[in-house]
Amino acid sequence: MLEEINRYFLMCLSCGVVLLRLPALRSPQQRPIWFTLFFQGFGSVIQIPAVAAALNSAIGIPKVVSLISGINSVIVVTAILTFAIRLDKADKPDLAPWRRPRLIYAVLTVVTMAAAFLTALAHSTPARDRFLPAVGTFTPLTVYWIAYLLCITVASAWATVLFWRQLPKLQTKTLRYAVLMLAVASSDMLVYTASRTGAVLSTNPVFINVGSFTSSVYFILVTVGCSVSVTAPLIRKIGVWRDCNRLYSLWKPLCEAEPKISLEGSRSRISDLLSIQNIDFRHHRRIVEIRDGLLVLREWISTPLLARIESELTRENVGGLDAKAAVTACWLQVALHRHDKGFEREEVPLDLVGDGGADADAELRWLRKVAKANRSAAVRRCAAAVISSTGPEPAERENLPTA
Q: Of 34-48, 87-101, 117-131, 326-340, where does mean pLDDT reach its minimum?
């Protein structure tokens, strides 16, 4: 019962991801993974007893589902090997070693399996359970299994070497997890082929049991690993969209204060949430525009004001916030107020924007901390206290009576 639930769950997962990630067909890197999931889902569907019986009846060939399932496995391991090779040659996309020989070998394996299968049926060759040949005989079924196991072993061994070799070089965490699962799955398939070889040569049930277990593990790892890999671009896009949303409260007031820093101008929260086109470009621009805004707004902060801000933050409980990010968020709120009320700029701006990262990822991490501090009630209280202690605004100062 548990095995059936697991099969149906993985079938739904593979079919769902195949439908969700149809755009992956346009990517040479992801196309093999999409086809792997497609044929994994197809393979799980034809294993359903009712579907298998219907196929055997419709085609009119006994046990034809066994042949279809074997051919499907050859296609799956060939697609996984193609992905492993493209991953290994990612820096040289035009280089595809052994591409034609690989395809020819896969086609020859399928043709050999089909010919051996039909010959065995035509001669009523006796077969054991799982379409295994009788022990100690050399029949068309033996040829079928030799062709099948040899192709699976070569493709899986090659993919195993490439996956484990590339794993330490991967920078993306999502892709690293996906490749790890595929590396383990390819290694597991070598155990499966060894167990099936033992089952062909022996009647010991241990080989059948080991083969069934390793086959289930392989199916799980390949389905989940391919699902993670093929959805990685979508997951990354969602992460970029989320970062844009996190930085919105920091970005919008800067764009309203200094419109010249923004290419497209500020937009409402709803409009920003619903805008998903060119998300990578918008994400990059948002980081640049926040940085430019900070460089401009720092001109409204003096040394005494900065000391006052640091003093207020020391008295306030800002636990859970990065100390430097809290200072940056606080002086930014004070600077926005002074800019809005018409205070004069400082002739020599302070160096207040030097805490960012050395690269784009580090800069993003820093701005996330600043945005978090900017939303903090404690930082807002500190900014309000500093603003109230800076004296009358320029417009009020003009109306004060002179001595």
A: 87-101
Token digits of residue 5: 């639930």
Q: What letter does residue 89 receive in the DSSP assignment?
A: T
- Hey, which residues does 237 pair with through a beta bridge? none
321 assigned to some structural domain: yes
> Measured in Å, how far apart are the chain's first and last C-alpha atoms?
93
pLDDT per position as a tens digit, 9-66: 888 888 889 988 888 888 888 899 999 999 999 988 888 888 888 998 888 888 899 8
Q: What is the pLDDT of residues 321-359, one digit of tens each?
A: 888 899 999 999 999 999 998 888 888 888 888 777 678
119 domain-assigned = yes
> Token match 């699962």: residue?
181
Q: Is 97 left (phi over 0), alpha (psi -120 to 50) or beta?
A: beta
Let me know whether 26 and 111 are in one domain: yes
Distance CA 146, CA 117 (A): 12
Query: And the tokens for 10?
Result: 């993985």
- Report the CATH number at residue 67: 1.20.1070
Q: CA 384 to CA 374: how far, in whole Å? A: 13
Domain boundaries, position 149: 2-237
In a domain, 247, yes or no: no
Note whether 127 and 212 are same-domain residues.
yes
Do 156 and 263 lie in a common domain?
A: no
Asked if 133 contacts 141 with a C-beta cutoff of 8 angstroms, the reply is yes
Whole-number Å distance between alpha carbons of 122 and 266: 75
Counting the structural domains of the chain, the total is 2
172-185: b or e for each residue (b if 16 or more CB lie within 10 Å)?
A: eebbbbbbbbbbbb
Neighbouring CB atoms inside 10 A of 314's CB total 10
Identity of the amino acid at 83 = F
Question: What is the sign of the dihedral through the CA atoms of 80, 81, 84 and 85?
Answer: negative
CA angle at residue 351 from 348 to 357, to 5 degrees? 155
User: Phi, psi at residue 133, to the nearest 5°?
Assistant: -75, 160
In a domain, 91, yes or no: yes
**Total Cβ atoms within 10 A of residue 288:** 15
